[in-house]
Sequence to fold (180 residues):
Amino acid sequence: MRHRILIAGIGNIFLGDDGFGVEVAQRLARRRLPDSVRVVDFGIRGIDLAYALMDGYELTILVDATPRGGLPGTIYVIEPDLAPAEISDAAVIDGHGMNPMSVFGLVKSMGGECRRVLIVGCEPEPLEEEEGRMGLSAAVSAAVDAAIQEIETLIAKELGADSARADLEMSELRTVHGKS
Fold:
């Protein structure tokens, strides 16, 4: 079985550091990645992301600006709780914004499931400094390469774990059939 990974850059380039996920996705798309990895710049297109999630990826990595109170440019890796109680299947999608929890709810309401989701986020500059500014702040721009390295590490770990599982399954098959 081929392990499939979706890297989803999300954000609004017209709101300064909110364009972080878009920038990371655009740079990652120019890199050499395994065939089982798909990189897409979704921007603010939540419905497109929901339909992509319906394709059954084993891992989805969302890349986004993630205000958590740290210093601007801080990179976070977060595994959100996708428990049914946390995600409403009565999702409302805003055509001009991107709320990942609403996207997960839409996927659920369409009968799909999000298997494993990680968020690679970056602490943006405070919002009041962002309004009306295109382009990333210096701190967030400097964090793009670190985010790419983190994502490449996550991909390697995920595919390495998948490869180890496949090796174990093959070993078990050989043992069962007496070819060990």
Remarks:
- DSSP finds four helices and five strands in the chain.
- The longest strand covers residues 37-43.
- The first helix runs from residue 20 to 29.
- The CA atoms of residues 4 and 36 lie 5 Å apart.
